[in-house]
Give the backbone structure.
Amino acid sequence: MKPKLFITREIFRDVINKLSTYYEVEVWDRFREPPYEILSEKARVSDALFTLLTDRIDCNLLKHSPRLRIVAQMAVGFDNIDVKCATDLGIYVTNTPGVLTEATAEHTWALILSLARRIIEADYFTRWGEWFRSGTAWHPTMLLGVELQGKTLGILGLGRIGSRVAEIAKAFNMRIIYYDVVRRRDLEEKLGLEYVELDKLIEESDIISIHTPLTPETRHLINEDRLKRMKRTALLVNTARGAVVDTEALVKALREGWIAGAALDVYEQEPLNPNHPISAFKNVILTPHIASATLDTRRKMAELTAENLIAFYEGRIPPTLVNTEVVNKKKPGFMS
Ligand code: GLV
């Protein structure tokens, strides 16, 4: 009998078909994520889960899923999964690092450039006739933006994505500083980066781009105090996790002009309610958590998730295992 796999959303058909040769697959085919109660029910009778970042895999769910051996997440972030609890229970957790680095870094740059050069505002200005009504074809002070050359980019979190964002910044002749809990001297040399303490990054950056995972230590890392200490001309970009920024404090910062603008792809509450005060600012760009949303990347993410599930099925250690110490607790595979 094949082990049971619950896939929490419709993914690419060929990936589902491939998985079906190893697993008895059930797919949640609605557009919205399965409610927690249904997810728990499905987990209770599954040997494996294929999850997305919107699926809450907490300790309660894991403890009540006696057959569950692997949670394979199609995302690089896994703050929705209680990994410690999974490890204690001998459940493997995998994610999809690497394959979405380029797409996420590209989206980050799309946001930085759009914010610096006021692309969305300019589009509205042109499209809705404000330019036409102004009667001026060209004006020396119309829609002035910020030039990147010579400015300081502060990278918060120098993992794969942060490093790639830094690498691209070289093309704009920016000064690049970074803060991370792990100092990366190899990358400092290779990419011409400067390591600084968090406070210095906050105070000296013209643009701050966030690339840290969400952990108890990074939750609300960008808080009221730090927003107050940023340059009044600073731009804040977040393509990591919404809760790294205290949104309420950010709204205050924008309202009171502590910083000059923000571009967000991630939010504390997703989907974002359009009535949220953050939606009202002209100097804020909002995208709906799509930094990895290219067809190429989403395919690779689904394929890597499937590879992890297949490796586990075959008794191999999944290629991108998160909780590597789980191997000492239980061998991979459904035989043991
Ligand atoms: C997306 O946010 C991811 O973690 O892959």
About this structure: Residues 295-313 form the longest helix (19 residues). The mean pLDDT is 98.
